[in-house]
Structure formats: structure tokens, C-alpha cells
Amino acid sequence: DQYNDQYDKVSTRTPAPLKRVETKEFYPVTTTDDPVVEKLAIEGKGTVFATDAILAHLMTCPRSVYPWDIIVQKLPTGALFFDKRDASQFDYLTVHETSNTPPTPVRDNSNEDELMNSPERLSLEATMINQNFTQQILRSSKYRTKFDYPNPFWDEDDNDGMEPASVAYRYRKFDLGDDIQIVARCELHGLGKDRQKTGTSKIVTNISANKKKKKKAANPLDVPEGDQYMTAYALNEYDPSYLANAPPARPGTAINWREKIDNQAGAVLASELKNNSFKLAKWTAQSLLAGASQMKIGFVSRATPKNAYEHVVLATQTYRPTDFAAQITLNQGTMWGHMRLFIKLLEKEPEGKYVIMRDPNRAIVRIYGVPAGTFEDSDGSDDDEEGDSDEEESGEEEEKE
After folding, report:
1. Helix (H) and strand (E) counts for the chain?
2. Whether pTM exceeds 0.85
3. Smaller CB count within 10 Å for the chain: N or C?
């Protein structure tokens, strides 16, 4: 769908209430459950298969603080499938993960104000905000640009009044050399106007139109003239001083967006880069993998500090993913180097199932070999992992940024 330019004009004086999207269905489907990836694997289109979220996670994992794990299945052909574990927290966004004062866990018998700002509640809140924001900033479906194939995860006969969220899936192939060909399912969230073409004169447009009539039919995957593929994400405001009887926010820990976002947007972004370095790096990597020309970042705050269910959009900023990557010191060569390292380590191992896991207490990523049936049965899967695993450590200690 087309991006609604009105959200570029949102400010603290004229905020836009964030609406709940209750009729849209989101599909965070893992790699091996994707029928298109399965078809591409059978056709031998690549040697490594993953989603953009999993690739971006591994590419930027040195910035992570919280523990995580990713499943890898190696087939007899040598093909590698990177998957997220069922019932994991992989698809939930973190809040202030890289902050010097991250949200602290609270007891279950705590009051509602404390529970509202616990890491689990904040993660759920941030994920819902992000989903609602990506749909709200788009224009109605009559401006929709359709790809060749329908949504592979939506069943029209069993929709229960729901419709798929406005997302375009783009299956891309990356050749890293040494017979490493990565096939990834990437997500695009909309079409934004190309700012550089909005001022084109009518004379030039007419001349170019005459020439275009002689060309062959356009590839439906090409972007319509004057538009660019875009991704969209939302940052949400969280301040530890919202807690009852908590001391004021430490200097540099949190900035009041309503005071700074209109005139000092750079200061707000710098604060978020410090507190959510991993999340922003991951979003940037996903935008680069999807081939997006624009990345929209929304700044969403609670309507009132103690209400975690009503929010307003205070601002929307547009960035070029390549420029933004340089701004947050995210080197694309290093990103692909991390991915290449994981692939090379797994290439040496025999057929089977493996787990890439970040140590909960140290900045170390380990690779474990596990039995084939691990994680497929919810009962006792953790015991199987610990008792029967054939441990293989990568031995690489990631340096935090």
C-alpha cells in the first residue's frame, strides 16, 4: 500500500492517536514452514535458507544483551535452514535492551504500575505498537500495488473475518562466493514517494513517457515510477521515572520526547541509539536485506504515562537504510562476515540439528549439536537439549559495541 504523507507532518502539537488494528492478521512464519522457501529449496535455488529477521539477528548479534537461540537444520545435501524455535520470544521487540539502566524484572504480586513497566509487558507493548503503526501509516487498499503471487500464508476460506496485514514478501538471493547462496524471505511494508522525483517538470515527464511506450512490458516487481519500496518500524517511549516512587530519570538515560522531538529530533534519536542499539541495527539490516530505499521510523508515546494501552504518534522520520547504517556504525561487510562465519562453522559439521545460542551471562555465542527430534515436542525439550546434546562451541567471543 501507499504511504500516507500526512504522517510526515505529525508533531507534538498535532499528534496522531495510534489505532488498534484488530482485523489484520500478521504471519511471523519461520523458514521451514514457508511453502515458497520449500519450493525454492527443492528446485536447488540456494544452499542457505532463512528469513530476513533471522539473518538480521545473526548479522547484528554482537550488539545483543539478552540471551537468544536459533535452530539450524543441516540436510544430507548440505543445505542449511535457519529457524526460530517454537514458543520463543524471537518475534517480540525488546525495550531499552542496551541501556545502562534497562527495565528490571518485578515480582508477580507487584502493583499494576510496576508490572506495566516490566521487561515482558514492555516487550509485548512495543510489539503491538510496531504492528499497529506499520498498518496505520498506509493509505487505503485502493492505492495498493499487487505482486505476482498472493500472500502464501493467508487462507481465504478460513479467515474468520480477518485479512492479511499489508506486507509484501520478497524472496531474494545473495551470493557470498565459495558456493554459498543465501535465499531469504524479506518484508516490505509499503511504497513511499521518491523525494528526488517529485519536482520533475511536465515537459520532461512527457518526453520520457513517449520513450517508455517503445519499451517492453515492465517487470511487476519493479517499483512504480516515482515510488520507492519502504520499511516501517516504531520506537516507543519508556521512562524508568514512570514507576511509582522511582527517582528521576538519570541524565542521558531517557529524554522527554514531547519536549525534544520537534526541535531536537537528533538528540532523541541519539538517546534511542544508545538504549536500543541492537533493535535499531536489526531493523536497518532487515531494510538493507529487503532492498528498501526508505526506512520510516515512528516515535510513539503513551497518551498518559500510566496507561500502556493508549498511544499517540509524535513524529515520523524517514531515513535511507544505507545512510542510517553508516550513522549507527553498522558496517555491511561486517554484517555479512558474521553470517559467513556461522555458515562456515556449520559446513564442517555432519548432517543434523544445531542450536546457535548467546550465553545469558557472557558475550559469547555457542553452537550446540542436538538430537533430531529436539524442540519438536514441547514436553521435555529442554531436558533433551541439556542431557543428550553433542556440544560444539564456536569459541568466538563477540565484543560488545
Report:
1. 11, 15
2. no
3. C
